[in-house]
Recover the amino acids of this structure.
């Protein structure tokens, strides 16, 4: 009956076999340091004993000092390999002669030891670089070779050289360390609010000045934070915040909500008239705008501002017609360019060069200013929201 080897002074234990399965080869499985000695050999159906079953399984998370490697057969052609399988999937390979299994979990520190020795090809100098004594380093390399089932170094005349297996392993080990370091950096940055996705809702007036300013500062300060922009109305943003579907919103106050929010107000912008291009450059009056008819946002999108604009026309004795409603500034500009009517938009809209329209100051009346604010849920909230919030308007902190 095949015997499984236990290391570290433990007595050998015999595997039970499933009747009817091939048991024609020895299965030497190195279990040192929680190796791959648990599981089931796909060829012989050897079952682990109760002690092995009590060990951690492969489907448990990899520890902070471990790196999971892809299965490798160092013979190159996988000849004679049979798969070890556990609850978490394939555990490694070993050949039918009883060669040690290639583990899929290796301590990261052992890979770092190997890479340092591979660079110096001198155990003493490598130990100095690693700030450790030479005997523990030699033991670490020996244990790694034992886990892999291959010799990584040739030792002759007090000289070290890499074997072919060692040379092949160098780049794989470096890639694993780079990946582990990168994963650690990303995890810590995300925890500290310096990496990840930030979902930003915005109204159509935000992209002309304040939103681009925030995005520029965000790229400069936190290049690993990736904004996801969602254009929605003020009321839709308030609802999305309550459902945690966005993190920050550019909105038009007043908000009309009892939701506990942090609010950052920008200076309100003056409104300007947008008319079909008549090749003129002078300002216009409310009467000029009324003759064209207004293309305006729906009252539900901003009831307070909508009412104040209409009231300004009424107080001057003008009956202004709303010829079309539109929820987006670009839509309004497009409709104005067709001659359908005139629109009132914040001054920053002039940054857009739009064929078929002209922008004009309003000469004879003071229309209400166009307010813009940024909102977010109050603390506690994700650290990434606090990081972005501090960038608003270049201020060190906003509460």
């Amino acid at each position: 009956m095949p015997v499984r080897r236990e290391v570290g002074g433990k007595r050998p234990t015999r595997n039970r076999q499933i009747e009817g399965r091939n048991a024609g080869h020895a299965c030497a499985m190195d279990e040192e340091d929680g190796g791959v000695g648990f599981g089931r050999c796909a060829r012989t159906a050897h079952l682990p004993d109760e002690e092995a079953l009590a060990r951690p399984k492969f489907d448990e998370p990899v520890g902070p000092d471990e790196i999971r490697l892809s299965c490798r057969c160092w013979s190159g052609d996988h000849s004679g390999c049979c798969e070890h399988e556990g609850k978490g999937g394939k555990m490694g390979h070993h050949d039918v002669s009883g060669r040690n299994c290639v583990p899929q979990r290796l301590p990261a520190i052992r890979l770092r030891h190997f890479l340092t020795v591979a660079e110096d090809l001198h155990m003493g100098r490598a130990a100095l670089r690693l700030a450790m004594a030479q005997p523990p380093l030699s033991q670490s390399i020996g244990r790694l070779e034992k886990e892999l089932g291959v010799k990584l170094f040739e030792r002759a005349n007090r000289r070290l050289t890499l074997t072919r297996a060692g040379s092949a392993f160098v780049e794989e080990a470096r890639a694993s360390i780079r990946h582990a370091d990168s994963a650690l950096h990303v995890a810590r940055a995300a925890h500290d609010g310096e990496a990840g996705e930030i979902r930003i809702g915005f109204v159509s007036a935000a992209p002309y000045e304040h939103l681009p300013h925030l995005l520029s500062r965000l790229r400069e300060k936190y290049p690993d934070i990736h904004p996801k922009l969602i254009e929605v109305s003020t009321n839709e943003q308030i609802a999305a915040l309550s459902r945690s579907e966005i993190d920050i919103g550019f909105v038009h106050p007043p908000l009309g909500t009892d939701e506990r929010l942090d609010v950052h107000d920008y200076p309100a912008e003056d409104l300007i008239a947008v008319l079909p291009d008549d090749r003129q450059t002078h300002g216009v009056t409310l009467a000029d705008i009324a003759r064209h008819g207004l293309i305006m946002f729906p009252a539900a999108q901003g009831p307070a501002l909508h009412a104040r604009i209409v009231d300004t026309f009424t107080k001057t004795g003008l009956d202004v017609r709303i010829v079309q409603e539109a929820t987006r500034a670009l839509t309004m500009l497009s409709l104005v360019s067709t001659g359908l009517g005139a629109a009132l938009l914040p001054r920053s809209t002039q940054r857009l060069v739009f064929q078929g329209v002209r922008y004009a100051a309003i000469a004879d009346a003071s229309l209400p200013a166009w307010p813009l604010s940024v909102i977010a849920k109050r603390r506690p909230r994700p650290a990434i929201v606090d990081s972005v919030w501090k960038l608003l308007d270049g201020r060190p902190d906003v509460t």
